Amino acid sequence: MSTHSVQAKQRAGEYVQSISDLLIDISHQIWEQPELAFEERRAHDLLCRTLSEVGLETEPHAYGLETAFQASAGTEGPEIAVICEYDALPGIGHACGHNVIAAAGLGAGLAAASMAAELGGRVRILGTPAEEGGGGKVFMLREGAFEGLDAAMMIHPADHNLPTLTTLAVHCLKVHYTGVASHAAAAPHLGRNALDAAVLGYMNVAALRQHIRSDERVHGVFLNAGEAPNIVPMAASAHWFVRAATTQQLEELKARVVDCLAAGALAAGCVMDIEWLDPAYSEMSDNDRLLSRYQENAELLGRPFADPEVVGYVMGSTDMGNVSQVLPTIHPLIAVAPEGVSIHTPEFAAFACSDAGDRAVIDGATALAATVIDCWLDPL
Ligand SMILES: [Zn+2]
Ligand SMILES: [Zn+2]
């Protein structure tokens, strides 16, 4: 590392420290009022207001999404995106800690923006809604939000500092079965039972699970299972997630799942309709060079990566995977909770607004800002 870059990163760190109260306050405000996918209006407004008050060119409601935004700084040189997520989960609030992602992304973006002109780089701060199922980044990708970028990065809360989320590609579906209603006692032979079709489909998938790869997942719930026991259910539906290590592997598994669900319909004499939900999430493909830069910067803050072989992988799916298929991207995990406290639990939600969560905001912002500077001074 050159002295120039060490000094620039140090100043970025000092900048983040100087706005630490603001960043932590924003993290807490978003945490206190959790908003679901595509409904993150308060978080969107709060982040946009903060960006424009600092004087950044800010575009609210960007790329055709009400709760997406973009802000940018710099006029020449490599252009790097830092990502803010801010959606919560139904029932358990910020149990994925996206309030920490938002505040860390904001802090990194502001620190980088304050030095962009001087260092000859550009930064784009992207507010990406609906990571938890809505796929905001995929829609933003289609609308050009990531065009012209040299790299994109974000941090994600976890119970360890880890290089990445071990991701699976995922495609979700809703299956609707239609049968024939009839009186369940007076004329059962005239009925065709849509609930039977759904249950048989479910059981077929349960049998399939014994014969899929260890990194594949299929899991579902019933959405509609009939109206009353004395009416043969004429409609039933289920919601399934199908996951595999790669998009290609996923296509093979999807075909097998459809066969299972269709066999249920065939057995029960019902009609099946499958609705694939847009968008599918791709697997994450981390850029090694970018990741090693982040790793070095995080280590300087006392956050060396744990070995996932030892502490365990954090599995999941993210729309950042789709971004990573298009440009150099990283999605490192930052510890906000003690070992063993899993994301998507009420316990994790509490840690996302704790001292540890606040430290992750500041360290995450600092490490991301330093990594942006690396990309400016020594393009990937
Ligand atoms: Zn999550
Ligand atoms: Zn998350």
UniProtKB/TrEMBL annotation:
GO CC annotation terms, alphabetical: cytoplasm
Biological-process GO terms, alphabetical: folic acid catabolic process
Signal peptide: none
Pfam families in the record: M20_dimer, Peptidase_M20
Residue ranges constituting the Peptidase M20 dimerisation domain according to the UniProt record: 174-264
A GO molecular function held by the record: dipeptidase activity
InterPro entries the record matches: Amidohydrolase, Bact_exopeptidase_dim_dom, Peptidase_M20, Peptidase_M20/M20A_hydrolases, Peptidase_M20_dimer, Xaa-Arg_dipeptidase
PANTHER family: PEPTIDASE M20, XAA-ARG DIPEPTIDASE
Protein name: Unannotated protein
Source species: freshwater metagenome
